[in-house]
Amino acid sequence: MTSAPKITLQGSYCIEHDALFEAVTLHIPAGQWTCLLGRSGVGKSTILRLILGLETAGQFDGVVFTDDGLPIDGRASYMAQSDLLLPWLNLRENVVLGARLRGETPNLAKADAMIERVGLTDHYAKKPAALSGGMRQRAALARALMEDRPIVLLDEPFSALDAGTRADMQDLTADVLIGRTVLLVTHDPAEACRLGHNISLLTPTGIEPWDVPLAAPVRQTDDPQTLHAQAALLSYLRAVT
Length: 241
Description:
The chain has helices at residues 44-52, 91-95, 97-101, 108-117, 133-146, 163-176, 189-195, 224-240; strands spanning 7-15, 18-28, 33-37, 59-66, 76-79, 151-155, 181-185, 198-203, 206-210. It has 241 residues and is α/β, with parallel strands linked by helices.
């Protein structure tokens, strides 16, 4: 695995001449978690797609670059809001899909270990239609973590999970992704304040940094500073949205 780079996105984005966001600069430090929040429809998921070089519905006037000068393509794994599991494959086959699409022999032992870590060992032979929404999301998370890339882009990866499972999956993901450059899109202030080394707030006119608690992530859910930070962040988001 190559070293995890710093990523910078600068520019504006419009859809049919209507600006979604203007003159934003997003810095994603190397080897850290950056959490991106903002109101619905402001362009958070679009930013993930722009970083990956994926097709979007509008026009981006700007640049995306890394501090090591190497391309992002081939170095990133991505988990979209939708689980994107293929319905004709079982859970285990979906988890190793990336390797098979690249013509590689999948590491089934590693896949089974990852499936166990997300708590789905008893369901590995089931097709997606037989899984609950939370199970499907955990399967998609296992697939993203299997890729073992230095750059990881996550779009609401824990949103379908109950509170206890969400905390467990946050802990697991943070452990697996130590040293990676991670961009997490979330609507949850508590999640951002628990996981983020950096928090950025996307608005139509720019990106604002938000102070994170002093303790290093992953922070305890009952840590007073974390609770204070998430309460302040929630109040701010309610005011601006």
